[in-house]
Every structure is written in structure tokens, then in C-alpha cells.
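Lab notebook page, bench 4
Experiment: in silico fold of construct C2
Operator: M.H.
Input chain length: 142 residues
Purpose: comparison with the prior construct
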Amino acid sequence: MKNNTMEHKTIEYKQSWQDKLPSEASLDDLDDETIDRFVVLAENRLPLVKGQKNKKLLLQKLQLFTKDIYTEKNLKKMGLNERQIKAVLYVKEKGRISNQEYQKLNNCSRNTATNDLRELIEKNIIKTSGKKGQGAYYVFAQ
């Protein structure tokens, strides 16, 4: 029951402040003073967050900032190539991608697909499903 109450308060808190946040807000867009103000508001509304040292982590946990980081512009800033950008946008739409789907999507070889997917894993953008071989696929890491 305690978990449901905390979850309800978090949702209520998020909804009450949704109109005060820019629609495309990101924690990286905020200065320390603004973050401090949100933390104080969170502490006042949700006493269980008192003592949380990492302020950005606290705000992430409260899910106040849900900016889509997987936009073409952001993916280019991350240094992804065009094939990788297509694949990330594909995962965004479909929820997952296989090596074979990557090859078809980008008209590339199996080795190129494997190397590109490995790089996306190293950049912590996607992760493996845990399956090997024919049934293997990749999903967002977060």
C-alpha cells in the first residue's frame, strides 16, 4: 500500500507541475538554481525524497523531465552515422531491431550492421535482448 501511495503522490506532483515546465525540457537545459528550486518543491511535496544527494537523479526519478533524446538532431550530436540514426528511429517506432532488419533498412552487409550495432551498444543507446543467433534483437538501453 505504501508503494501505491508514493506512486500516486509522484503522479499527482508530476501533473501539478506539468504546465510549469517547457514541453521539451531536459535536465541538461536547466541551471543549478532551477534544479535547486525543483528539489525544494519536491521535498515539500514528497517528504521521502529528503536527503537525496544527487539532485538530477531525484528529478529523473520523479519523471518530471521526459524530453525525447532520440531526435535526429541529438543523434547527430552523439556522433552517430546515418545508418545508426535510421536504426535508432526504427527502434523508436517499432520497439526493437534485429541485425537482419538493420541490414535491410540500411542496405548494408552483415558485418557493417554488426559493427554499427556494437557501437550503439557501447554508446549505451541500445542493448541486446539476451538471445543469440536468429532470434537476437536490440532494444533501447534505458
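Observations: The two ends are 27 Å apart (CA to CA). DSSP finds seven helices and two strands in the chain.
Next step: discuss at group meeting.
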